[in-house]
Each structure stands twice: as structure tokens, then as C-alpha cells.
Amino acid sequence: MSKDAVQTAQAAAHPEAATSPADAGDAGYSKDLKHRHVNMIAIGGAIGTGLFLGAGGRLHDAGPALALAYLVCGVFAFFVVRALGELVLYRPSSGSFVSYAREFLGEKGAYVAGWMYFLNWSTTGIADITAIALYTHYWSPFTPVPQWVLALIALAVVLAVNLISVKIFGEMEFWFAIVKVATLVAFMLVGVFLLATRHEVDGRTPGPHVITAHGGVLPHGVMPVVLVMQGVIFAYAALELVGVAAGETAEPERVVPRAVNSIMWRVGLFYVGSVVLLALLLPGSLYSAGESPFVTVLSKIGVRGAGDVMNLVVLTAAMSSLNSGLYSTGRILRSMAMAGSAPRFTRVMSRSQVPYGGILLTCAVCVLGVVLNYLMPGQAFEIVLNVASLGIISTWVIIMVCHLVFVRRARAGLVTRPAFRLPGSPVTEIVTVVFLLVCLGMMGNDPEVGRKTLLLIPVLAALLVAGWFAVRRRVAQHVDDELSELTR
Asked: Which domains does the chain show, CATH number per domain?
């Protein structure tokens, strides 16, 4: 009988005693993350280079309807985080959704969830160090320095921060988020001022007529808006960090609901609000993928140094993402290693209660990114970004499937749902999963990169199957050991 079956049978026989199973990977962590840390980690996950840099190219392709794309994807991102928040309150775990996948989908589910998440963050880490190197080249003193050297320096700095303690990580993320939020608020105040005073921007008076005079909300039709959805979803990647961080805070039942609920209005204010402002100030055709849309606007009104300031902010966002990636994969890999599905060395903790084994493994993959920056400096960013999108979509789908099983067991009386719940279950989960899979399929409409990315799916599936056969005996031994403890 499987571990899952034993737990279900025991809970059914004694529902009054049904408790959430402990995760061995949760032992040994400090509880040093405070409310302000978790709150800012949630903000940092919602605001990144996808807005500061990526919105320019998307505005050019999709027009003002990009705001609607951000809103729709933001709603589904909120559903994912809300479902994860409910699972966190049911049982806080640094293993987060991998730990929940183990409980509700079995060891194979946890194995797939963990390694796809590792794929997401390790490739995102490569994209981040590539971006940091590119942004640093913006300043002339760094131009002569090879791109791979700058990438290596960035990786070394963030690695050192992660290895010291979780408190230092939390402080770093707190201030990174402060920089991003302050920049957005400052720009939005400038944008509102320009609208209110009807101050000309590039010889045009801002307002709704800027949209209507240049093709309306859908200047290029519906299809470009549909095609940018996948990129918009990636812009929201890292929201699930709230679930991982909850395992290292002393009061998850108080901190998590506030952090999760605040995500929705932040998405509305920062993403949708800023894109609407950008569309009211300049036609979409004037924005480009190679320049931050905020720099485009500020340069048009004669603000000197706008490029330098925004480049620093985008650099901060990339450092924040790399910092978060090393943090989260270290915890996820430790949870997997304790169950036998990741290398044994990734379960090792330092004296400062940091799972440095998993962090170093992720860092090793990022070092491959340094090599990629040496061999293909012009293509490194685009290559890894599309691979990372496969990881984040699979992660979100697994979170929603876990929640579906959780709710089903709650209705059977096997577990107890907390008061903080995902509304509309099971319809919400099903619609979200369908939406994510449709976005994945739409990548096939991009012949340059999207289709090649989809061709990686069978390759990844084959690697996952091969890996499972390599670790299944160790996983089975771990399950047998736990069953022995349960039946004593």
C-alpha cells in the first residue's frame, strides 16, 4: 500500500484526528522573515523586467489592448497565488507546492513539480545574469568588459548574499522591491501630471485621442494581443515565491493572506495602470522592444538621465529575480532531497540554516549560462527565456491540480480547509488550467522561437522519465521508511 493510501485510510477511519503530514524538508529552518519581507517578496514577484523592459515591445505589437492582456493574465495569476495561499495556511512548508504535490499527487507528482520548477529558475537565472551583463554594458566604463565576466560577477555577488542567511536575503529583496515600487509610483505621478496639465509629449497633447487617432484599442487586431499572453504570463512569474517564503516566517497565518490579497490591487495599479498611462501619452508605434517604455516617454519630454535611472532600476529587477531564484530552488531541492528525488548533497544545511547544497546546484547551472554568454552573447537571453516559460506554466498548472485534489479531500472529510480560500472551486482551477495550456499552445504561432520551444517538451518529458527511473528506488526506500514510522 502506498504512503498516500495509508494516510487516506487513517484519516477516513479517524477524521477527528486527521492532520496535515509533516514534511521532513521543513526541519532546521529559521523563522527570520518578517511581515515586511514577505510582503515585499510578493511585490517583487509581481513587478520585474517584464514590465520595466518588456512592456515596450508588447505595446508596439499589441497596442493599448496590452492593458487588457495584463489584466486577464493578472486575474489568473491571482487565482494561482490564492490557491497556493490556501495550501500554505493548511500546512506552511518551505517545500511549498512540491511538498503539496507529494501529499496530493504522490512522489511522481512532487518529482515533476520540483524539477520543472528547477528548470524554470535555473534558466531564468541564466537570463538574469545575461540581462545584468547587458544592462551594465549601457554605461561606458563597463563597455570594454566582456559580457561573460560581468555575468560571472553578478552571479558571485548574489550567491554570497544567499549563502549568508535568510534574513539577509529578505532585506535585499525588501530594498530591491522598494526601488521598483518607488520608480513606478514616480513615473505614474509624472504621467498623471502630464495628462492633467495637457503637457505635450513629443509634440502631441496626451489623452484618449492618442489611442483613437492611431487605430484604437486594437490597432493590429486581436491576434497580436493573444500572442503576447505567453510573455505576459512570464512577467508574473515569481508570484509563487510567497508560498516558499511562508515556511520561514513565524506567523504565516497572519502574513500570507495579507500578502496574497494585496497582489490583485498591485497588478491593477502597477501593470494595468502604467500601461494605460503609456498608451494615453504616446502611440504604441513609438515604443520598442529595445528600450524601456518609461525611458521612451521621459526622453520625449526632455528628462535628462532617464535612461541611466531606468537602466539602474531594470538592473535591480534582474538582480532581484536572480536572488529569488537561488533562494527558492535551494528550499525546493532540499524538500525533494529529503524524499529521495534530488541529489543527497542538496539536503545539506549550513550553520546559518541555509540549504546551500541546492543553492550551489542552481548556481552551477547558471555558470553554464556564463559559458553561453561567452559563446553566444547575442542569443543567450532569448534562448533561455523561452525554456523558462515551460517551467513556470507547468508549475502553475501543478499548483491548481494540487488544490483541486485538496478540495476534493476536504469534501470527503479527510482534511480541513482554512477560512482563507480560493473562490469558485473547482471551476476556478479548471478554467485556470485550461487558460495556461491554451497560452502554452499559442507559442506555436511564433515560428521563430515559440515552435522550437514547444519541440523541447518531448525532450524534457524523456529526461524526466529517465531521471525518475534513476531515483525511484531511493524514493521507494524513503516511502517505506516513513510507512514503518507510521505503523509503529
From this structure: 31-415+423-483 (1.20.1740.10)
